[in-house]
Design goal:
This protein is α/β, with parallel strands linked by helices. It has helices spanning 16-32, 62-78, 95-103, 118-130, 161-174, 191-206, 223-233, 256-263, and strands at residues 5-10, 35-43, 83-90, 108-113, 135-139, 152-156, 179-185, 211-216, 238-242, 245-248, 251-254, 268-272. It folds into two domains: 5-145, HUPs (Rossmann fold, 3-Layer(aba) Sandwich), CATH 3.40.50; 152-272, 3-Layer(aba) Sandwich (Rossmann fold), CATH 3.40.50. A ten-stranded mixed beta sheet has the order 3-2-1-4-5-12-9-6-7-8, with helices on both faces. A two-stranded antiparallel ribbon has the order 10-11.
Length: 273
C-alpha cells in the first residue's frame, strides 16, 4: 500500500484548536507529498432544542463549514499542497455516513479528535469499521505540540490480526522514520511474545527498516495509559496500533486500550482494523 490520497473531514466548530490542527494536517500532508480532499458538510436540518440534542450529534452550520474550508484552503495555498475542497450537505443523522462513504475512496482518513468527546469517538469508530481504510488521529487538544514529520514511531504490538494490519498499513509512513520501536506491554514476557517481537523486527528489516523491540511493564495500570506514558517519555511522534472492537446488536464496542487512546490521544495515532 502507498499513501497518495488523504481525506480530511472538517466537521465541528471552527475553534482555535481546530484551526491549528488543520494547519498541522496540511503541513504533515505536504511533507508526505500527497493529495488531500478536505470535506466539510453543512447540515440541512435545523438544530433541535438543547435538551433534545444528543451528545453524539453535531450541527454543522454553513458559517462553520465555510470557515473550516477557508482555513484549510489558506494553509494549502501557503504550503503548495495538492488538494480538493468539497462542501456537501447532509442531515445530522447522516453526517458521519457521508464522511464514511467518501473515505472508502481514499488511502487513509485523518480524524480531528477532541479528548473525551463522544462525537470524535463515533467518527473514528465509523471510519475504522465501515471504510476498510486506516485512520490517522490528529489530537486537537495538543495540536500545538505535534510534529509534522514522523521521526520517532512506536508500534503497539500484540501479535493480533489488527496489529499486523496496522503495521502493513503504516509501512509507507514508517519509511520516513529515523527510529522505529516495537512495544509489547506486559509484566512477564512469554517466550512467544519475545519471539513475535523479534520476528517483527526481522520483517521490518526486509523492508529496510531498523526497528528495536522492547517490552514495557503494565504494573497495575492499563495498557492504554502505559502507551500514553511511553509516548510522552520518549517523544514519540506517531503511535501505530490495531483498533479493537466487536459488534453487539449491530453496534461496535471498543476494547479498553483502543477507547483509552481515542479519548486521550497522546500523539498522532494510526489505527487499523
Amino acid at each position: 500500500m502507498s499513501i497518495r490520497d488523504i481525506l480530511l473531514p472538517l466537521v465541528g466548530h471552527s475553534s482555535r484548536t481546530t484551526m491549528l490542527a488543520i494547519e498541522k494536517c496540511v503541513a504533515l500532508a505536504r511533507g508526505l507529498d500527497v493529495r488531500v480532499t478536505a470535506l466539510a458538510i453543512e447540515t440541512e436540518d435545523n438544530a433541535p432544542p438543547a435538551d433534545v440534542l444528543g451528545a453524539t450529534e453535531i450541527v454543522q452550520t454553513a458559517p462553520s463549514a465555510h470557515a473550516l474550508l477557508t482555513a484549510f484552503g489558506a494553509a494549502a495555498t501557503r504550503l503548495s499542497l495538492r488538494n480538493e475542497q468539497r462542501l456537501e450537505r447532509a442531515t445530522r443523522a447522516s453526517l458521519i455516513d457521508a464522511v464514511a462513504v467518501r473515505a472508502r475512496l481514499n488511502d487513509i482518513s485523518i480524524a480531528l479528535v477532541k479528548s473525551g468527546d463522544s462525537f470524535s469517538e463515533e467518527l473514528v469508530e465509523r471510519l475504522l469499521f465501515e471504510t476498510g481504510r486506516p485512520v490517522l488521529i490528529c489530537p486537537e487538544d495538543i495540536a500545538d505540540s505535534l510534529d509534522t514529520s514522523f521521526n520517532d514511531v512506536a508500534i503497539a504490538w500484540d501479535h493480533t490480526a489488527p496489529a499486523a494490519r496496522a503495521v502493513g498499513d503504516a509501512m509507507p509512513l514508517l519509511k520516513y522514520a529515523s527510529r522505529v520501536r516495537i512495544l509489547t506491554a506486559t509484566d512477564t514476557a512469554s517466550g512467544a511474545q519475545l519471539a513475535s517481537g523479534a520476528a517483527l523486527e526481522r520483517h521490518l528489516a526486509e523492508h529496510g527498516l531498523a526497528a528495536a523491540f522492547e517490552t514495557v511493564e503494565v504494573a497495575g495500570s492499563s495498557i492504554g495509559k502505559v502507551l500514553g506514558e511511553y509516548v510522552e517519555d520518549n517523544a514519540i511522534d506517531l503511535l501505530v496500533m490495531g483498533g479493537f472492537g466487536h459488534s453487539r446488536l449491530g453496534e461496535h464496542v471498543w476494547g479498553g486500550v483502543t477507547r483509552t487512546v481515542i479519548n486521550q490521544p497522546p500523539c498522532w495515532v494510526m489505527l487499523s482494523h
